[in-house]
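Side project, low priority. Logging it here so it doesn't get lost.
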Amino acid sequence: MSRTAQEEANLALVLGLFRDVLNPMDSGAVDRFIAPDYVQHNQSVEPGREPLKRFLDMIREQTPDAVHDVKRAFVDGDHVTVHYHVRRWPDDLGWAVIDIFRVENGLIVEHWDVMQDVVEGGPNPISPF
């Protein structure tokens, strides 16, 4: 199944968000990717651009070496799903995260996420990646 031009644009937008905003924790680049009336379903961050910018600034101050290592990304119409590994510092096992974004008119308008701790050993030796 091939992607439409719009799906390609939606995927590029979200991957650009990771490249230009999330990995460098650059709150100044948020407006290029996020709609003014952005709906945030994460309970730790209020909806809208400004709360997201404040959250990114706080995270950058607390964990300046954090990385978001994208493992895979999928697009289906106006939804883009990204599976990635967050590490807050170099030896951090981090979190396995899945974000779902909804894109409208060339900007991200809605976001959901789920995450789990990455652990060594345990009853299931299969990596979350």
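Brief comment: The first helix runs from residue 5 to 22.
Revisit when time allows.
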